[in-house]
């Protein structure tokens, strides 16, 4: 069934200003090859399909009271494309819901041992049951493949400006909105999705302590066996994000997150040397 939001009253295809996310599964090729080599392909694909089923159900739940459906997604090999059309009257709540799905998705994949990287853009696209085309998809792809670098989901400059204006709107009126915490600005000035905040607020995969403990363990267990500098940089970014989050949000949530901070000195010697080189 085609998405009627991208067709006019004459059933003609139209382009619409839309939010579009392009998300890549990092290390997909190696995971596939290793799972077949170790005869674990069945278990791997069961876990992967379980994650995809969760994603599909999330979109179904958000779409069940909306006709025609608002949010759509497409999956091909190791890439996801998620999109929905912009509406000036409702875009804040719709964008929040969209980012919550993506943030939960990022956390769920990580807890299953899979890192995601992506880009989210605002621009024209056409989407139906078979294809999605348009400048917003191209920009989201380029954000993921060129600019994101680390396991983070980043925002286009146009979308960043829209977000900044909305946050400033609330700050000028001395109002508090959780929307502000969905984003963090990295050292390179790029805005990325604060998925730990989303996961903790949604309590989708456990309590805040459970989430941070599992996130910490994932980082330590993987950074400790990484011998490739290129891969190490991704886990090192994840470590820095984790520690920054624990420091920043401990007073926000009035919880002691210091116990979850990863000390680089606690990692093994070879990795400590690798850290010092970066």
Brief write-up:
This protein has helices at residues 28-37, 41-63, 91-111, 135-148, 157-172, 195-202, 208-223, 229-253, 269-277; strands at 16-25, 72-76, 79-85, 116-127, 132-133, 153-155, 183-185, 191-193. The chain has 278 residues and is of the alpha+beta class.
Write the layout of secondary structure elements.
Blueprint: E1 16-25, H1 28-37, H2 41-63, E2 72-76, E3 79-85, H3 91-111, E4 116-127, E5 132-133, H4 135-148, E6 153-155, H5 157-172, E7 183-185, E8 191-193, H6 195-202, H7 208-223, H8 229-253, H9 269-277
Parallel strand pairs: 4-6
Antiparallel strand pairs: 1-3, 1-4, 2-3, 4-5, 7-8
Helix pairs in contact: 1-2, 2-3, 3-6, 7-8
C-alpha termini separation: 50 Å
Content-based structural category? alpha+beta
Shape verdict: globular
Radius of gyration based on Cα positions? 19 Å
User: Total number of β-strand segments?
Assistant: 8
* DSSP strand content: 15-25%
Biggest pleated sheet: 6 strands, mixed
- Mean pLDDT across the residues is 84
Count of discrete alpha- or pi-helical segments spanning 4 or more residues: 9
């Amino acid at each position: 069934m085609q998405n009627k939001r991208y067709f006019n009253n004459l059933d003609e295809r139209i382009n619409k200003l839309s939010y579009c996310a392009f998300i890549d599964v990092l290390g997909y090729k190696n995971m596939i090859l290793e799972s077949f080599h170790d005869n674990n392909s069945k278990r791997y694909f069961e876990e992967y399909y379980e994650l995809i089923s969760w994603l599909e159900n999330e979109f179904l739940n958000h779409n069940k009271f909306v006709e025609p459906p608002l949010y759509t997604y497409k999956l091909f090999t190791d890439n996801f494309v998620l999109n929905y059309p912009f509406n000036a009257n409702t875009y804040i709540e719709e964008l929040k819901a969209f980012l919550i799905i993506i943030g939960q998705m990022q956390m769920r994949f990580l807890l299953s041992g899979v890192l995601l990287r992506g880009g989210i853009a605002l621009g024209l696209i056409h989407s139906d049951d078979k294809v999605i085309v348009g400048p917003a998809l191209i920009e989201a792809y380029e954000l993921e493949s060129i600019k994101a670098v680390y396991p983070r989901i980043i925002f286009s400059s146009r979308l960043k400006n829209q977000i900044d204006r909305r946050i400033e709107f609330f700050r000028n009126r001395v109002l508090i909105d959780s929307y502000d915490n969905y984003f963090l600005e990295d050292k390179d000035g790029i805005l990325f999705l604060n998925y730990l905040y989303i996961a903790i607020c949604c309590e989708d995969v456990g309590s805040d302590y459970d989430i941070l403990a599992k996130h910490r363990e994932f980082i330590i267990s993987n950074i400790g066996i990484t011998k490739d500098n290129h891969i190490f940089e991704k886990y090192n970014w994840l470590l820095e994000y984790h520690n920054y989050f624990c420091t920043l949000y401990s007073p926000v949530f009035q919880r002691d997150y210091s116990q979850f901070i990863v000390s680089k000195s606690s990692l093994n010697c070879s990795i400590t040397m690798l850290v010092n080189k970066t």
